[in-house]
Amino acid sequence: MKPEKIIPSQLFSKWKLTVQILNCISNNRDNTIPRIMKKTGSSYTAIKNIIEELIAHGIIGEQKISESKDRGRPPKTYIILKSFEINYPPRKYDLLLSYLISSLKSKNEVDLQQLLAEIGVQMAVEKAFELKNHNIKINSISDLAVVISKDLESENIPYDVTVHDNSLEIKIYSCVFKKISTEFSPIICLVHENYYAKLLEETLKLKSNIIHTSNLSKNDSECSFLITPVKPLT
Length: 234
Hints:
By secondary structure, the protein is of the alpha+beta class. The chain has helices spanning 3-6, 9-26, 33-40, 44-56, 93-105, 112-133, 141-154, 178-184, 189-204, and strands at 60-63, 77-80, 159-163, 168-172, 206-214, 223-232. The protein is built from 9 helices and 6 strands; from the N terminus they run H-H-H-H-E-E-H-H-H-E-E-H-H-E-E. The strands form 2 sheets. Strands 3-4-6-5 form a 4-stranded antiparallel β-sheet, with helices on one face. Strands 1-2 form a two-stranded antiparallel ribbon. The longest helix is centred in the middle third of the chain and has 22 residues, at 112-133.
């Protein structure tokens, strides 16, 4: 089930627009409401309401630009506040997810744990589809370890992926979600856990047990996941 099937449609549409607005503001070229309207096709009122909410959360701020005699008053421009910028990796997943989870927690009609688990599942389904489209065959846990290693390496994430006799151990030494995982742990880890479990299921047709043996949010040196296949899918 996709996230938009769990979240009420109006709420999902708002969050989808929030992602688009933050992307526009982040590139420093489309950071005015008229430009955001052009990029997203959304109304002035819808964009302005979300911008005001993001400002209230301290996520974005208004950039002061002096008036010009030739052009008159320029449109307001917005910036991601420096205190919320993330240097690694460059995408601002942490900032956005913090905003979304805070909002989710205030919505009684949304099962937050189910939502995050389903996001992990959907990511795995899409990854398995990508592997199939590129004719990348996964015939063993070792093959899967290679795929996971390449993905982590492409994201510039320090890692160790080790294949044991009948298990796969994944250690991640720097997590984009570390700042918010302290507040929202262990639910934020449901994304990772369900991603790995579903990826094993989609590629090797195996059910698995996953143990989260260490956690960066608890001041451990890494996040460590031990994935052990238990039985084939029936």
